[in-house]
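Hi C.,

You asked whether I'd gotten around to modeling the 348-residue construct. I have! Everything is below, sequence then structure, no commentary in between.
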Amino acid sequence: MILLAALAAPVAAVPARADMPFLVQSGPLTFAPLVKKVVPAVVNIAVTQDVEDDDTRVKVPPALRGTPFEKQFRERMRSRKEQMLGAGSGFVIDPSGIIVTNNHVVGQADKITVSFSDGTELPAKLLGSDDLTDIAVIQVKTDHPLPFVTWGRSQDVQIGDWILAAGNPFGLGSSVTAGIVSARGRDIGAGPFDDFLQLDAPINPGNSGGPSFDMRGQVVALNTAIVSPTGGSVGIGFGIPSELVAPIVDQLRTKGHIDRGWLGVTLENAPGGVSIVSVDKGGPGQRAGLHAGDLVTSVNGEHVDSNRGLIRTVAAAAPGSTIRLALQRKGKPVDVLVVVGRRTEGPS
């Protein structure tokens, strides 16, 4: 009782200072104009696999379990010789029918079905996918131009900026949520190129592959993962920044796969740059004269301050191209030209 009384005691008002401007004026009164602009380009993706056994039990994807759609899904799938592998989201980036999603959404599907907000369903084919970044590109055929969205500049996104996420949470379809960017540059152990935006807009199973928009209606992130002890949103979601997604999508559209650069060295973070721990025998680094103990400070004049940043920069270089590394070797500056090799699957 004494504590409650103390808490209820009046507090003297602090006078406002006229020389201190408001840092936040107001939030948006409504997201409705933004939603109307972008939602027609956001799609739901269903992935199935053919089965031969008529008695195969229907497996419900996690995104539909416990939802009103679970019973409908079971009845629908029992009449077909196919098994649902998953459900997710995607977004159209070209009116001809090019759609971006996550690789883990489309997986090893025999059949991909895309549903639009107007109820239209179209079959899709996989144009290309990339395991290391969890990005995939699919395509539908259509006799008319489709609504589409454009890439925004994720490098301009600041912590605290508004964000709008759209997708297919728990199979509900055409759902949007809003929040802010909570952090940048998150490494969640998903792969060697982790550089996620952390979002607090509610993202749930089924949102994977969907877009997050800035307030201009441009895509600044590809929603990919959540951290949750319950399986649902607890306000910690992760999206791949558009500056990383867009160039990979361009390669997948044209070639169906990603060619990545490789140095053939083992790296670790160090004060002032990135230290080379070891050099692979016969690799590009050894051929260029790199040594264990070298401290890499920049690539092609751009400063590097982490091993992840250096790996991403080298990976973005075309195999066979030449890059210039600025080093500190035994306290002396050294410039080394390296002909980049081709990265294969694996941790190196």
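If it helps when you're writing up: The chain has a mean pLDDT of 85.

Thanks,
B.
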